[in-house]
Design brief:
The protein has 2 domains: 219 residues, no CATH class; 91 residues, Pdz3 Domain (Roll), CATH 2.30.42. 51% of the residues lie in helices and 21% in strands. It is elongated, with a radius of gyration of 25 Å. Its EC number is 3.4.24.-. Belongs to the peptidase M50B family.
């Protein structure tokens, strides 16, 4: 019961933070461009709590926590023949509209960077060392004589400082012989290792057959923490973009997509590890939310930016009919992805197999 309550509360907190900062980006950009913001809502549906600020904006927390919105004056009225009301979104310049829309995803990326910076400055970063904790029997590592406890110093002359870097090198070289420099019981030895291969989502990658669990805390000075946070944000974002590319072009990873239920399950596991893990999880999800919203699918922020780009190229807004078709397509795609991810989540939880067994 306690674990369930903790998962629900943490899930609501994580989503609330992500949505708040995303919408805050839109809000601050709109105010900076002189656009009146009528409503700032975290969640949808009836308001649980609401108040009106001196600026006139109604701030509220609503019943359904799966998202939020900023309602600007004149939003959704790009082709209104009447002169736009001063301070309305419809009356803003095309550049201002693009800035306001892009500010939400950018706020999520900035949030991740700030959270990583704060974590690295205060508690440091957990780094898995390039040390073999286990070596799988009958694996390429075992065939080459590698042992548990070996520390990898370099591979083909490239210095290796983390287990993640070792994984990257191995995955990029399937069926290749490489020279490993190892530290074994205080002695440096050179060992040639012929990597194997495995197929992941239709792509062949290198395989060594080892696991690493020896970790340490890497501490940073404030400037080093900021630099490391930038690298971490870039690395996680690049991985996310690579995943989106493989999904769109090669249709790889559809079965691994997670939806609200899957995120809730992981949130419960992260919550059990403590507040530091929760903060790291928020940063990771914030990068994902920001980049996904920049995908040029109508209904997402990236879709609106696509419309504005078309308007800038052709010198006039797209016809209302074309925009309506685009938004309907985007909505249908998002709904389809929701059902797909929910099916994936239920499958991982065993619910789909249970239902199939129930009905024979």
């Amino acid at each position: 019961m306690f674990d369930t309550a903790r998962t629900i509360l943490t899930y609501a907190f994580v989503l609330g933070v992500l949505v708040f900062f995303h919408e805050l980006g839109h809000y601050l950009a709109a105010r900076a461009r002189g656009v009146v913001v009528e409503v700032f809502s975290v969640g949808f549906g009836p308001a649980l709590v609401s108040w009106r600020a001196k600026s006139g904006t109604v701030w509220k927390v609503s019943v359904l926590p799966l998202g939020g919105y900023v309602k600007m004056q004149g939003w959704g009225e790009p082709n209104d023949p009447a002169p736009p009301v001063p301070g309305s979104f419809a009356g803003a310049s095309l550049g201002s509209k693009a800035f306001i829309v892009a500010a939400g995803p950018l706020a999520n990326l900035l949030l991740a960077f700030v959270l990583f910076s704060g974590l690295f400055m205060t508690v440091g970063r957990v780094v898995v060392q390039p040390v073999f904790s286990t070596v799988e029997p009958a694996s390429p590592a075992a065939a080459a004589g590698l042992r548990a406890g070996d520390r990898v110093l370099a591979v083909d002359g490239e210095q290796v400082k983390t287990f993640n870097r070792l994984q990257d090198i191995v995955s990029q070289h399937p069926d290749v012989s490489m020279d490993f420099t190892l530290l074994r019981q205080g002695k440096v030895i050179d060992q040639q290792v012929t990597l194997g291969d495995v197929t992941l989502d239709g792509t062949k990658i290198g395989h060594l057959g080892v696991a690493g669990s020896v970790s340490s805390i890497q501490h940073f000075s404030p400037p080093e923490a900021v630099a490391a946070a930038a690298v971490e944000t870039w690395h996680d974002g690049s991985g996310m973009l690579a995943g989106l590319y493989n999904l769109a072009v090669h249709r790889q990873g559809l079965g691994q997509l997670a939806g609200p239920l899957g995120i809730a399950e992981v949130t419960g596991q992260v919550a059990a590890l403590g507040i530091i893990s929760v903060i790291s999880f928020i940063a990771f999800l914030s990068i994902n939310l920001g980049l996904i919203n920049l995908v040029p699918i109508p209904i997402l922020d990236g879709g609106h930016l696509l419309f504005y780009l078309a308007e800038a190229i052709y010198g006039r807004p797209l016809p209302a009919r074309a925009m309506d078709i685009g938004l309907r397509f985007g909505a249908a795609l998002i709904i389809s992805l929701f059902f797909l991810t929910t099916f994936n989540d239920l499958s991982r939880m065993g619910a789909v197999n249970w239902v199939m067994h129930l009905f024979g």
